[in-house]
């Protein structure tokens, strides 16, 4: 049964403590006191700038001058208007001549500098550089008119994420945890999957929370009593980073059955952020998976199957060192082979920078993970993807091992 979010009872209340509260619920700022203009002591009323400047004085002087000036006849008006037009034309011509002289002088200076240095004058660079993506591999053409999708920089963005994920490569850290083991971590991740489903959080939140948990456990020795607190706090931080309306501490206190106190959450949140140097923008495989599925023109069912494999991999401690982009590529390749949609295409290799030979070992490990018997204590992911909303991909049978090996050995392999 989904956990219901509690209403936030800690609302901000404005209290008047020695300061007046204005009509807009804002505290009045203490200015220099002015002498009141009424017996009740109300502030002095004024129109804009009248009592701060000499606007009224200037206006009065202008009125006096206008009254003393002689009245203009109709002939005088015509002459004045003609003179004003001639003045405008002369100013415009003079301005154009000055601009032309300045441009000619600038060109002569640039040519002289270029000749002294032996360098030819530089050509004007285009405002936006042309894409280097081959036309047959350009999957962002259909979104060229949508500036929110940034189609001109989509590949560069994911190439940057690939470079950035090298900063967050982990190793097997469990040997440095005297009170933990791989089974405890699996139970924690399985519970975090249930939390993400019950709170209806984004999948990116779940993946980032798992990353935060692994990175914190890799640098800090903890006891098993605080393991759920670490996972809950990591989910809280990830929700603040990814969600538009993240759950609060009260929600996590509720799902933890009040095992921990609010202050413990605050202390753990500070410890995790300080341990990661507040750098929590960690690349996650889910983002790469959606990108590569778009490149492969995969259906939603095939993408969901790849997501199922990728989410199952979160439970496996031996897959923690894998790069997010590599894991996403391997999950998609296994889903394509299982759905009998072919193998690793040149377009996928271009956008992911992974060859079929590089992905084959990881695909075999993922296949072995799916073929092994499921742990009865870790059924959250399987139950989640057995629902009709997720096309019941958890019940899709695996391909035969010979078919898998044939697809991994031949880049041009196609399933009949």
UniProtKB/TrEMBL annotation:
It holds the Pfam family Cyclin_C. Residues 283-399 form the Cyclin C-terminal domain. Residues 190-274, 287-368 form the Cyclin-like domain. Residues 1-48, 105-128 are annotated as: Disordered. The keyword Cell division applies. Keywords: Cell cycle, Cell division, Cyclin. This is G2/mitotic-specific cyclin-B3.
């Amino acid at each position: 049964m989904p956990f219901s979010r509690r209403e936030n009872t800690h609302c901000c209340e404005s209290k008047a403590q020695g300061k007046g509260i204005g009509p807009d619920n804002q505290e009045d700022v203490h200015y220099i006191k002015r002498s009141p203009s009424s017996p009740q002591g109300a502030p002095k009323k004024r129109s804009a700038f009248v009592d701060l400047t000499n606007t009224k004085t200037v206006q009065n002087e202008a009125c006096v001058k206008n009254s003393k000036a002689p009245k203009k006849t109709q002939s005088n008006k015509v002459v004045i208007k003609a003179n004003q037009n001639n003045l405008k034309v002369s100013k415009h011509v003079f301005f154009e001549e000055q601009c032309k002289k300045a441009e000619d002088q600038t060109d002569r200076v640039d040519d002289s500098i270029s000749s002294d240095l032996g360098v030819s004058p530089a050509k004007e660079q285009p405002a936006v550089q042309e894409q280097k993506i081959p036309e047959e591999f350009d999957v962002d053409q259909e979104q060229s008119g949508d500036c929110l999708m940034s189609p001109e920089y989509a590949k560069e963005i994911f190439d940057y994420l690939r470079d950035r994920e090298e900063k967050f490569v982990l190793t097997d850290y469990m040997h440095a945890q005297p009170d933990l083991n791989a089974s405890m971590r699996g139970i924690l991740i399985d519970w975090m999957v249930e939390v993400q489903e019950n709170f209806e959080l984004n999948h990116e939140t779940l993946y980032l929370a798992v990353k935060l948990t692994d990175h914190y456990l890799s640098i800090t020795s903890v006891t098993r009593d605080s393991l759920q607190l670490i996972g809950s706090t990591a989910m809280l931080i990830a929700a603040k980073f990814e969600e538009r309306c993240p759950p609060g501490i009260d929600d996590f206190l509720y799902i933890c059955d009040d095992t921990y106190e609010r202050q413990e959450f605050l202390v753990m949140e500070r410890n995790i952020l300080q341990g990661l140097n507040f750098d929590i923008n960690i690349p996650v495989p889910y983002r790469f998976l959606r990108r590569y599925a778009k490149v492969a023109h995969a259906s939603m069912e095939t993408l969901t199957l790849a997501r199922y494999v990728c989410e199952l991999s979160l439970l496996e401690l031996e897959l923690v060192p894998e790069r997010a982009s590599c894991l996403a590529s391997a999950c998609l390749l296994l889903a394509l082979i299982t759905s009998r949609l072919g193998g690793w295409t040149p377009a996928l290799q271009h956008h992911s920078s992974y060859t079929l030979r590089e992905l084959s070992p990881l695909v075999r490990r993922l296949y072995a993970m799916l073929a092994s018997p499921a742990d009865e204590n870790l059924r959250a992911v399987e139950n989640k993807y057995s629902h009709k909303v997720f096309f019941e991909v958890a019940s899709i049978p695996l391909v035969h091992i010979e078919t898998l090996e044939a697809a991994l050995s031949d880049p041009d392999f196609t399933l009949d």
